[in-house]
Design brief:
Elements (H helix, E strand, L loop, with lengths): L12 E5 L5 H14 L3 E5 L5 H11 L5 E5 L4 H10 L3 E3 L5 H9 L3 E3 L1 E2 L2 H10 L3 E4 L2 H15 L5 E4 L8 H7 L3 E4 L10 H25 L1
Parallel strand pairs: 1-2, 1-9, 2-3, 3-4, 4-5, 6-7, 7-8
């Protein structure tokens, strides 16, 4: 089973949230996103046949593209996703048992956190990345405050409302990556439209990184 071990560096880049992705479309969608520059794909468990979709993506995409599951709520689901080939586990909440099992199985954990208490509970359980969710609730000023107290080696990944137009603001506040959902993928989207959206998001991400380095 292909897995990714935890590292001491925070993850960076964009995670494509593919909610509602049909298994039959998954490889074409995955290849499109990979060609555009995405290297992390998340299939939420409330999608049709998510485990089969995860398996199809993992088998069909290059090894440097991480494939994982989202909306993971239980330890049992963590194990099922691991068996299907998942390498990352994303949750909407902070469940220390889910985080610990994810880490134990060699996968990367992205637990949802909405408060500093959530964030530090997740870190104590072994998470090296925390999903800021919903990011609109925490806000730019909130993330700035988090970034002053959360260890620098921890990835800060806002999810919710992230678009081409606001990535630079979030990166300046301390974001090290983003989860991108509806502004990238919706069921029924054409490959042409998906490729256009993905390309614009990758370009915005790279531009925001460059701007952030200059500001630093």
């Amino acid at each position: 089973m292909t897995t990714i071990k935890e590292t001491t560096k925070p993850s960076t880049g964009l995670i494509a949230i593919l909610r509602g992705l049909p298994t039959t479309d998954s490889l074409e969608v995955g290849q499109c996103l990979y060609e555009a520059g995405f290297r992390s794909l998340e299939v939420p468990l409330n999608s049709p046949n998510p485990l089969a979709t995860i398996g199809t993506l993992r088998k069909g995409l290059p090894a440097d593209c991480l494939v994982g599951a989202g909306t993971v709520l239980t330890v049992g689901q963590v194990r099922q996703c691991h068996e299907a080939g998942a390498q990352i586990i994303v949750s909407p909440n902070t469940d220390t048992a889910v985080i610990a099992e994810t880490v134990r199985l060699g996968m990367r954990s992205y637990p949802g956190t909405a408060t500093p208490s959530d964030a530090f509970a997740a870190i104590s359980a072994g998470a090296l990345d925390i999903k800021i969710f919903p990011s609109e609730q925490v806000g730019i000023n909130g993330l700035k405050a988090w970034a002053t107290v959360v260890p620098k080696e921890i990835g800060l990944i806002p999810v919710g409302g992230i678009e081409v137009s606001n990535m630079n603001i979030w990166i300046a506040a301390g974001a090290t990556g983003f989860g991108i959902g509806a502004s990238l993928y919706k069921p029924g989207i054409t490959i042409q439209d998906l490729r256009k959206r993905a390309t614009l998001l990758i370009e915005a991400w790279n531009s925001a990184l460059i701007a952030g380095k200059k500001a630093a």
